[in-house]
């Protein structure tokens, strides 16, 4: 499994947290199994291969980090979403931005440009071209104003 596939799975799980009250560790334990991946593989090819231990640890770190820092990440999204009420932002788009922002802020081993570029590429699979531009604009402004490239 490639890192961008693991990142996309982390986005799926972060999205699921938006409307699921299951405790995060329970959700991750349920979702990161070979059986779950096998069941989901017919729906989405990114589940064709279950994560190995290193990939599962990366996914867990991302999803737990996004959950732990949700208020902070959402405040950045709100800050750079000029003219948009946070509640109007699609849940998938906010999950994509949260994951990218978490990587930029808390995972120094991942280049900022890689986190943002991957987020935009993943957004192209799930969102309209206008929403992709919106995500790209927010992440670009966030990176320029809040952090420096590592």
UniProtKB/TrEMBL annotation:
| One cellular component (GO) term of this entry | cytosol
Q: What SUPFAM superfamilies does the annotation carry?
A: NusB-like (SSF48013)
One Pfam match, by short name? Answer: NusB
Q: Which domain of life is it from?
A: Bacteria
InterPro entries named in the record:
NusB-like_sf, NusB_fam, NusB_RsmB_TIM44
Coiled coil spans? none
Keywords of this entry: Plasmid, RNA-binding, Transcription, Transcription antitermination, Transcription regulation
Q: Which residues form the NusB/RsmB/TIM44 domain?
A: 5-144
Q: Supply the name of the protein.
A: Transcription antitermination protein NusB
Task: Name a biological process GO annotation.
Answer: DNA-templated transcription termination
Please report which protein family the annotation says this sequence is part of: Belongs to the NusB family.
UniProt GO molecular function: RNA binding
* Entries under PANTHER family matching the protein: ANTITERMINATION NUSB DOMAIN-CONTAINING PROTEIN (PTHR11078:SF3), N UTILIZATION SUBSTANCE PROTEIN B-RELATED (PTHR11078)
The record's function comment reads: Involved in transcription antitermination. Required for transcription of ribosomal RNA (rRNA) genes. Binds specifically to the boxA antiterminator sequence of the ribosomal RNA (rrn) operons.
NCBIfam families under this entry? nusB (TIGR01951)
